[in-house]
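Much of what follows relies on a compact textual record of a protein's fold. With that in mind, consider the following protein and its fold in token form.
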Amino acid sequence: MKLEDRMQAAINGIQGNVILRTDVAKLGGHSQVSVGLDQLMRKGLIVRMGIGIYAKASRNPLTGVITPTADLETLAVEVFRRLGISASAGTERSTVSKDAKIWVKGSRRIRRKLSLGGRSVVYVNELSSPRNANSSVRRHPKTGALIIPTSGLRRYVMDLADSCQVAYTRTYADEWAENVSRLSGDDVRTDVIESLVIALKKQKKVTGLEAVHLLTNYLREKQRV
């Protein structure tokens, strides 16, 4: 039996959707296994998620489209289960980014890159939240979604920008927009907090809905002062 056939048989015998290179590493030499995995990918039987990590897949006989047996969130959680790391998929879908949020239990820093079909996995844990222990930013323990307060928004936004390493840089387009508004009779100027929220959204650190809530709560608080 050829190595490719033996690898396919081994993969078919694995429960679940995730295949690790270590599952088939003993079937041949390093380069032989690499060639075998490439052949299985060309056949559409597996897709690559990251270094040494694959997912079972199937090819549509009519369209030729290769489809994984599960979505990225499900596969990512299974990957970490196979690696002995406790994780769960965030229930919130970003309206700005296609990234999949995966909540990793504890403060372990995960550097493994996982992606599928143009989407990437974003890890959320205690280290993903503020670098400063006294930061006001808090996230939901299961989904990783921001918990946005109704007061103290100035400090909250600044802490969030600091934790995401985002800074607002004024551009020519910003100056042009303000000049147009001024000429039309509307003297509208965004302050540093509003600009930071816009920068966070532009860099996809917050979703569109989160940005709206941040701005709304901040402006309401400003009116009360």
